[in-house]
Hints:
Blueprint: H1 3-17, H2 22-54, H3 58-73
Helix pairs in contact: 1-2, 2-3
Pfam families: DUF7667
InterPro entries: DUF7667
Amino acid sequence: MLPVYQRLAELWTTMQCRQLTDYEKMEMDQCLKLNAKLCWDMAYLENISLMASLTADIDWQHEICQEIESLQLGQNKKPGS
């Protein structure tokens, strides 16, 4: 699990008991922004993986699968690079 998801869970849990501080609100906003980016990056990779599959480009599909795995592990690699 990526640390950003752990922190987001902590902030959400804290929010159930009390209001977040301004700093915590900023942290939550940053976590949500990163979550959105990760979701869009994953969607992009899944779409180009489908394209690779439809064109029977096995080498390209393996590269994409490695990028997906890197993204899931939280490694800083931009999709398509």
